[in-house]
């Protein structure tokens, strides 16, 4: 047990940058860390408040329907779905692609202890989701039922165990994909295909259940009740909190801990073998030297970035979700029709609102393709190699930006064509929508790499710590939300009659922003890169 504790402690200190924050002698570094901490706290509080405001009107409807217990059910179901979704593409990076595998296996600790430490670290990350998504609806239930101290004690205890089963299920799916892919040479390809199939399923399947919204809560009650009965541990959770029953609470805690422990016990037997297998590199046995090809500097750097990107399972799965979401949205519009998609997403996709809503959806998908926000950090301790080469810094930075654009621009072209035919858009609207989205394809990666230069994370053991948990990713996300949010808020306030003209003005603003950012990249960005 001591070995598990020390491994968890080392993982937290290394991944969350605690040593750097506490022991840094630079005043600027301390200020930057403090501001980042305040920004995280602010974002967490705002998201919690938003969830509370979403559940509050639902609580009123359920009170009238005498079905208030569904608030508890919605709490654990939403938390389970979020935790499961996050685990599916987060856990493989912890279980299969961590850099210190050889080091940990050489230590006098059991593979089960290594696995347990990594799974508990994932649990700590998912616990934040349980608090953010689950607690607001439970508080609203407590307000409506005048729950006392015992109820809130039950909530606190139960919340600690909620992520265990979804994490175990997500890890089991990752384990199955790992076992299958470990038998083939193209392990990354199989893992990526399997993971994206599961992610797309989680995007599509919930929206195929009709009637689950606040306006049709009554018709959704049988469907939700059926799901609760199928997931038996959620029924234990609901009965434990609604009746403050200690026996049901004990049963829920026992089942959750048993499932989590059983997974660790079973998986630890093949943990070492799978990781050893997946770290193997295959070379052709009949390789022959023929001719050597030469290419320009930019092409060589771009190919290097592309090969590294495709070789990293966790890098692809955490940065390509945006373009996958864009494709799912466009195909859903083409297959189900705009009215059905508008109802599922609760978007005003009718009349003059079509183009702005699509522009907002595309902007969200493009902005959340965080390739450049982690590209400098992923150089890791080998950054000195590329810095020592006789290359222009601008070429190095732009090769990473071009990789990001390689994902977003082709996806944008395909999806623009799909929605243009689905909505029968005019030529002017299609051109404006394309230009607006194209400018975001330029602005977003430039912002990402500039932020990464200011918030580099070069010391890491797992790529997950860089592409999901680094300050660079978080700050880039906040900036992108602001860039998307300002035009959206202005559109709501102004309600322009000519939406194309409004989008053209947004294009002008984005073009100016792109020019400023590119100039900053060639000056401030180059300077920051040389200082790393």
Proportion in β-strands:
under 5%
Mean pLDDT: 77
Structural class: mainly alpha
Please state the overall shape, judged from the principal axes of the Cα atoms.
globular
Helix tally equals 24
Element-level helix/strand string: HHHHHHHHHHHHHHHHHHHHHHHH
Spans where pLDDT lies below 50 across 5 or more residues: 205-215
How many E strands? 0
* Range of helix content: over 70%
Major beta-sheet overview: none
Radius of gyration: 25 Å
Number of domains: 2
What distance lies between the first and last C-alpha atoms, to the nearest angstrom?
Answer: 39 Å
Can you tell me about this structure?
There is one protein chain. With 532 residues, the protein is mainly alpha-helical. It is 80% helix and 0% strand. It has helices at residues 2-15, 18-23, 27-64, 69-95, 101-106, 111-145, 149-161, 164-181, 187-204, 217-230, 232-242, 246-278, 297-311, 313-319, 321-336, 338-345, 354-367, 372-375, 383-388, 393-423, 427-454, 464-467, 471-494, 499-531. Helix 17 (354-367) runs parallel beside helix 21 (427-454) and helix 17 runs antiparallel to helix 23 (471-494). Residues 205-215 have low confidence and may be disordered.
